[in-house]
Batch of 3 targets.
Target 1
Amino acid sequence: MESVRCNLCGGNDAPVLFRKRDGLKIGGEEFSVAECRRCGLLYLNPRPGPEEIARFYPDHYSWKKDLEGSSSLTRLVRGMEKRYRYHLLAGEVAKVIR
């Protein structure tokens, strides 16, 4: 795992809001979601490094490259992805909304 600055503004002041176990049950790690105090971005910190991240993606993970940005299939997949992320984090985000 590597500690990182905010990807949006470069800030380095981001307290942990909550921790969440790997929802896909790939490793069993607990991930920390931090919120940048400068811009409000939520991100993993620390996050898996380049060598570790491959464990979380299958070799055939390439649908984004293969789909046109405006196709109905792309919109469907992105919508499903958004709902899935919301489902995974809904209970945690509700705890930190002010």
Target 2
Amino acid sequence: MREKQNAAIQELAVSVAELARPDMRPKELREAVRQKFPEASKKEISRAAFYAVILAAQEQPDKAEDLHDLALKSRNDPVDESQGRSVKSTKAKDKPR
């Protein structure tokens, strides 16, 4: 099962690397990836973006930096797509005192 998940993430990572552009917004990347992989979740695409960074770092260091920035933005994107609304933080510092 784990090998199947890794293969799927690797396949997504290849697509992320092909589709990613400098200054691309995470939502744009997710939409582009989902045209090829409609069932891919935000979490899977974010993981694939980080995996793409690892692959690119070995062969294309300049592209790795762009992918890393996009992966971080995607991971921290506050939009919960399943609900179509912003995700509220549950951190203690965000709660009223």
Target 3
Amino acid sequence: MTSLNLQLVSAIFANDSSRIRELVEQGEINVNDRGFFSFPPLLRAVVYGKLEALKALIEVGADRNALDSQGRTALQLARKYNHAQIVEILLQTDRVSP
């Protein structure tokens, strides 16, 4: 995992949407990289209930249909962890697997 990937993970945990956008604009980061524990950034934001990070990741092109290692979608994880606002956001966006 690169330093930029670690910075992305930190920005997700901090729910820092502007930092996420900044890292992507630098052009050296892949928002779909599975990196840390083979877990896509979008799913990390979902599991930890980071709404602003989720919105930023969707905005910059994160794969909304990414699966975790057990084959679960972002929407399934949001429901599992009772993140109602995240469920709403995911249902409002196009191309989200149920």
